[in-house]
C-alpha cells in the first residue's frame, strides 16, 4: 500500500484566487486513475481535478468554498 | 506546428451543439481527435456559468420563456451570458498545455485572438483590469469562460457580430453591473457570422501558431 497526494494542478497557476467548489467523492470511496474528484474554479475558469491513481480516498483536506493554492494537497489516496 | 480541426454547427439549438462539443472533448482528451474548435450561432439562450448570481437575471423565468429564450446551467466559469442570432460562439477544445504553460495564459491567448481580429478591422480591442473578455470603448465585445477537464478545454468565448439587443436586457452580462455590451456592427464593421468565423480562424492560427483545417464527421478521427 502507498499514499498518493492529490494536488491542485500546476496548470492553474496564474489565477489570482482558486476556490474549491465541490467534491465528487467522499472518504472511503474507491476511485480510478483519471476520475474527476473535485471541481475548483477561478473567476472565469472551471477546473476538474482528476485522480492521479487508483485507490481509496483516505482523506479530504479542503472543504467546498475554501481558497486553495497551486500545488496544495487537497486529498490523499491509498493505493493497493 | 499543431493541427487544429474546426467545425461549424451553424445556426443551432444550444443543447445539440453542447452534445457535439462534449463528444469532441472526449475525443480530444483521450487523443483520438486532433485539437478542435467548434463554432456555433445559437437560437436564443441564456447560459449561467458556475458563478452565476440570481441577480444577474433581470427578467422573470416566465418572461424569458415567453421571449423564446431558453435557460441553461453550464460548467464553465463565469456568470450569465446571452447567446443568440448574430453572436458567434467559439469553443476551442484544445490540449491547452501544448500552447500555454497555464490555463490563465490560455485565457489571455483567447482574448489576444479577438484583439488581433479587431485590429484587422481597424478597431482597438483591449482588456480591462480584473474583467476578463475583450472590450471596445463602449462596452464588452467578447465574453470568455472556460472549463478544463482531463487537460483539455471546453467552452471559450462569444463574439458579438451583429446581435439583436432586446434580449440582452434580460441579464446583467457576465454579472458586471454598469458595463455595456457592444458589437462589431455597432462600430461599422458589418460582417456575417461566417465571415467573422473566418477572420477569427486567421487570428487564432497566428496567436496559437497552429494550422487550421476544417474537420468533418468522416475525417475527424486522428490518423
Short key terms for the protein model shown above:
heterodimer; A: mainly beta; OB fold (Dihydrolipoamide Acetyltransferase, E2P); 4-stranded antiparallel beta sheet; 8 strands; B: 223 residues; alpha/beta; BirA Bifunctional Protein, domain 2; 3-stranded mixed beta sheet; globular
How would you portray this structure in words?
The complex is a heterodimer of chains A (80) and B (223). Chain A is built from no helices and eight strands. Chain A is mainly beta. Chain A has one domain (2-79): OB fold (Dihydrolipoamide Acetyltransferase, E2P). A four-stranded antiparallel sheet of chain A has the order 1-8-6-3, with no helix packed on it. Chain A is elongated. Chain B is α/β, with parallel strands linked by helices and 223 residues long. In chain B, 25% of the residues lie in helices and 32% in strands. The model of chain B is unreliable at 218-223 (pLDDT under 50). The longest helix of chain B is centred in the middle third of the chain and has 18 residues, at 103-120. In chain B, β7 and β8 (131-136) form a beta hairpin. Chain B has one domain: BirA Bifunctional Protein, domain 2 (2-Layer Sandwich). Chain B starts with a strand and ends in a 9-residue tail after the last strand. In chain B, the strands form two sheets. Chain B has an eight-stranded mixed sheet. Chain B is built from four helices and eleven strands. Chains A and B meet through β4 and β5 of A and α3 and β9 of B.
